[in-house]
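Supplementary Methods, section 5.1.

A reviewer requested that the exact input to the structure prediction be made available. We therefore reproduce it here, unchanged from the version used in the analyses.
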Amino acid sequence: MTTIEDIYKDMDEIISQIEGEDASQEVDAEYKIYDKNTKLLLGSENIDSYLNIYDEICKDNIAILECFDFDNAQDLQNYISEQEISFDSLKIETANASREALKFLIYEAEDEEY
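The structure derived from this sequence is encoded token-by-token as follows.
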């Protein structure tokens, strides 16, 4: 099973492969808010606190990590309940969403450079 640590190792590898100094700086600057939101979510004590944080992130509409492709806390909560998603699985999905955001930012930054 994939762990959060595995995902972060993969993210380090992805970052090391960014082509171009400008792209690297742009990704670094833009990813900071995603990283902050990821750390807030991963630091939550339980699903309720996680959903409260997720709700605030969605309301701010800045660097939303779309866990399980939901961009609002209510739909995410319904899905978690229906699918009986564990808190650990939710955290792994959070790290996956953060990795996907990173990949997208890199794609955009490298595309602008060429």
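The chain has a mean pLDDT of 90. These observations are discussed further in the main text.
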